[in-house]
Amino acid sequence: FPLFLLSLPTFPLSPFSMLALGPCLLTRPPRPRGRRASGIQRIIHQTWKTKEVPVPLRAFHATWLARNPGWTHWVWNDAENRALIAEHYAWMLPYYDELNMPVKKADAVRFAYMHRYGGLYADLDAISVRPLAPLFAAHEATADVLLGQLHKPSGESIPNAVMASKPGATFWLHVMREFVRRVNCHKPEFDTGPAL
Q1: What CA–CA distance (Å, rounded) separates 24 from 154?
Q2: Per-residue pLDDT tens for 145-190?
Q3: How much is the pTM?
């Protein structure tokens, strides 16, 4: 499977700093408008405990909408996350339910978003600094998955805060299998996060 590692430039305000996103715009699971025959879907996934995104995070939500007009945007809640796993990845559900920290569940479900629907996943504390379409257009013909790269000496150099994929990319099934192998072995970064 092709894998493209995108080196994230340094911005005056880190794209992973506490910023914000906004209220959920949809009331049912995502159905990207005009589903593309191939390539990365024009959908942005994010997750929070409930449909109500906290006020401190809303301003940055606006950056995703403003820089990516016409894209489908979905804020998943905890109940929808579990339902997605139960319906499409039942083999993973016992392990998902066993996770001992909410952040691990939020980390684990994003692999399902990428595999099932494709598009882009972004943490609620991330901002969009430019439109995504040119990035996707430049790489989607040759890459199934787009991941960032942090310049850190540790093993946590590939962040899971922002990532993109074509739907059905087998890469995510490998990641989910590794997640199952590591359930509650260590801290979130190792079990479900950037060190996975």
Answers
A1: 35
A2: 988 876 665 555 677 788 999 999 998 998 888 878 867 666 655 5
A3: 0.77
* Number of alpha carbons in the 13 Å side-chain half-sphere of residue 73: 21
* Pairing of the two strands 3-7 and 145-149: parallel
155 in Cβ contact with 190 (< 8 Å): no
**Cα distance between the two ends of the chain:** 18
